[in-house]
């Protein structure tokens, strides 16, 4: 679920930008660190060095006594500067530290140590840094500074960096989830709507009430595009319908005249040619009739619709076709659920079912391994009809194409037909709000018809 | 036969008129619905061929009026509207048969013959007989040479339609409509297969073959003393 959101382009963009910000902040923090902490450290070291050199010089120039005086003078009223001088027994002689501290070795000849300071009743440990020297007689000198502010600033900077990185990471993740979800929801609305429309033969439009901004624009543009496609499809349908309508009349006259001639002709040869011409004219008229029928079904008039017992209808079609299928030595099986009813035009449905069976018979070989199956069953309140054969089948890439007008597959060019059968089937089923789909029977074809749920 | 033809399309009108005359029928032809209806009231015709769509008064109205006035002359509708519900409407209004334009002349002739025959009181008889083949409509039993033939329901129906119109040509379209209630042309040769099955039961092992194929027209059941 969440991973889906991350996949959205917006979410990815947000994540990438978050990473970029984290990088920028690290760079920025490092420079701040460099300019504050390091500068402070340098300055402290410089002060320690000056004091140290001065006091060591005093020791060598004026002797230990002068050094102790100088230390005691400097120790007065001092919090930041730290001094201690001890004798060879490690006992304190002068300075503001009570005893020689426990040293930890630091960098650049400095040592680090901790001191305890009382602040009211509380005792606070402070970090200090110092330089030390041991004189020949065993006495020692320590010159240092309380570097607590340095440490605090360093800690504050580290905390700030960590906090910012964590904050940006979390807000980046949540932001991308939120934005991803937002854009995906909108895109999903568009996506689902477009998918539905495509599955539904471009019927229906995107409802853009639930979406806004650029998505709304996309939605209304897609809707406009669909309108345009609709117009074009409508035009092309009308064109074939109009052509069929206009050509049918002269063709009919042609045929009538041929028939009248046929009544008079006695010559057998001439008669033969005339009969051939009449048959051809008939075929043309059949094509035009089919085109006109498809056009009229596509105008979606639900004419002469009644409650039909589809189980009886399929059974009677099976009885009509059983001898034909048996004649071809094809095994015929069927499983028809009783008493299923739907609202439709019996004659049109019969026409579409027989068309599918005609195809199954036409493309199934005449041998005992051939099998044609018809199933009728109710599933989730939806009436399903399946026509299965194990004939040569259809390539998956042609599944949609075969429903178009005048489409004949390359391998079927030799067989009889005009490429209008399945267009007619689809048009009839469309009037019935039924959906037809093809799939493979491995080998062979499965034609599945699903009627709209009726209660 | 005396035939009344009402058709507004002049080329169809002259085509049918010429064709029917060729077969020796007398034709009264009108291109105007009202004039045609007046002629029909005389009730002197054997058949009325009526276009479904006429400019002033349409075919459905004419039939309804005729039937309301007890004119029972059989009516064959012609229509350019091939849609099934148009057929149903036409038959409901009182038409006896329906033919979609364009039709072949043999189809029209076969239907006219069948309609004329239906007028004949003979068709009320329960027992149909041709040569030694007997079909009993009441008991639905078929015998040939007094031997009972076991027929499937569809085969029986097919034989019944052929025998009701014995000696006449029944076209494929008529068989599809009357036997199987199919109102279009299936791609498969259902009729051939069913006829051949019927033949096996009726004519096989008999010297006289009764089920005839009429080339280019259809089928017929007839006995020719050859």
Throw out a few tags for this protein.
heterodimer, A: 455 residues, alpha+beta, Beta-Lactamase, Helix Hairpins, Heat Shock Protein 90, six-stranded antiparallel β-sheet, five-stranded mixed β-sheet, 56% helix, 18% strand, rod-shaped, B: 226 residues, alpha/beta, Rossmann fold, Arc Repressor Mutant, subunit A, five-stranded parallel β-sheet, four-stranded antiparallel β-sheet, 8 helices, 40% helix
3D structure, described in words:
- The complex is a heterodimer of chains A (455) and B (226).
- Chain A contains nine helices and 13 strands.
- With 455 residues, chain A is an alpha+beta fold.
- Chain B folds into two domains: 118 residues, Rossmann fold (3-Layer(aba) Sandwich); 97 residues, Winged helix-like DNA-binding domain superfamily/Winged helix DNA-binding domain (Arc Repressor Mutant, subunit A).
- Chain B is 40% helix and 22% strand.
- In chain B, strands 2-1-3-4-5 form a five-stranded parallel beta sheet, with helices on both faces. In chain B, strands 6-7-8-9 form a four-stranded antiparallel beta sheet, with helices on one face.
- In chain B, helix 3 links the parallel strand 3 and strand 4.
- Chain B is elongated, with a radius of gyration of 19 Å.
- Chains A and B meet through helix 5, helix 6, helix 7 and helix 8 of A and helix 1, helix 4 and helix 8 of B.
